[in-house]
Amino acid sequence: MLQAVPELMTLEAFLNWYPDGYGRYELWNGVVITMQPTGTHEQVGGFLGMKLGVEIDRLALPYLIPRQVIVKPLDTDKSGYNPDVIILDQAVLSEEPLWKQRSTITQGKSVRVVIEVVSTNWRDDYGHKFIDYEALGIPEYWIVDYLGLGGSRYIGSPKEPTLSVYQLVNGEYQGQLFRGSDRILSVAFPELNLTAEQVFAAGI
Predict the structure, then answer these.
(1) How many C-beta neighbours within 10 Å does residue 104 have?
(2) Structural domain boundaries in the chain
């Protein structure tokens, strides 16, 4: 007996369907994924959003931290990511065709920093999203592995809480790892006075 193959959703259909204000979702190759982060995961993301928001205000930077955004990878109409924290450049948002109506980003130049807080699906953050954010040309990508869940090839051995900052250099991400009392170094926020352990402590 032949079984019907479920129809995969396009990004446009996903954006039409998205229940605004009710939960967080991503689209992976046409399949809707429900994002249900833990409380500690949200504490870490919220802490980073607060700290970076203070820095934006202190330096009067033309940046924006929206509540929710969908980031569309290149060369596909069947995926869309919902980062834990994203810093947008307000100066170029007018060039985003889907921003005003869809809160969707299609160009890497619109993003100053994108941040993913690692959960049990750590392979997505170190793998698929890493590749797609790099291809899109997002200049800075943080992976906040506050529980030390990622593979040892990414965070070393023995595993420990690690914050990875990747800068786009000649079209490829070059990374630096921060642990303990290491001060986080960021091109987008060069005066940021924040250590890795301060970020990780937000999840305790």
Answers:
(1) 20
(2) 38-69+81-201
* Per-residue pLDDT reduced to its tens digit, 156-173: 999 999 999 999 999 999
User: Do 159 and 148 meet the contact criterion of CB atoms below 8 Å apart?
Assistant: yes
Q: Is the pTM of this model over 0.85?
A: yes
Nearest to 41, CA basis, from 163, 181, 144: 144
CB 11 within 8 A of CB 81: no
Please, is 159 exposed, middle or buried when counting C-beta atoms within 10 Å of its C-beta (0-12, 13-18, 19+)?
middle
Q: What is the DSSP letter of 195?
A: B
Q: Is the separation of the CB atoms in 74 and 102 below 8 Å?
A: no
- Confirm if 176 and 154 have CB atoms less than 8 A apart: no
Cα distance between residue 171 and residue 99, in whole Å: 24
